[in-house]
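WARN no homologs supplied; continuing
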Amino acid sequence: MLAYRLFDIKRTYLIDHQRIQLRMKSFTKSIEKTYEESAVFGVQRLKSRIVEQISHEFRTPLTCIIGFAEMLEYDILIDEKQRMEYASYIRNEGLRLTNLINDII
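OK structure emitted
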């Protein structure tokens, strides 16, 4: 009788142990899937931040270049000193863009 009872307990233990193993496998797969999804989302978020930063860094000097070039293009009454200053701004911002591109490459 005792042997039968011990066998019954052992069988119950083995069944429960198998269930626990299956649950653990299921949880592990779920955790791995969640981790992979969060990693992909993190990469996408990082990519978006990089693109936003790069576009901001390019727009600033381009706005300056376009603005000063338009002032030089139209016959606005400015003296030679201002004209040289505006040309210098255009050159410096062009160099800034070149440096940004080199940094990215």
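The mean pLDDT is 80.
OK
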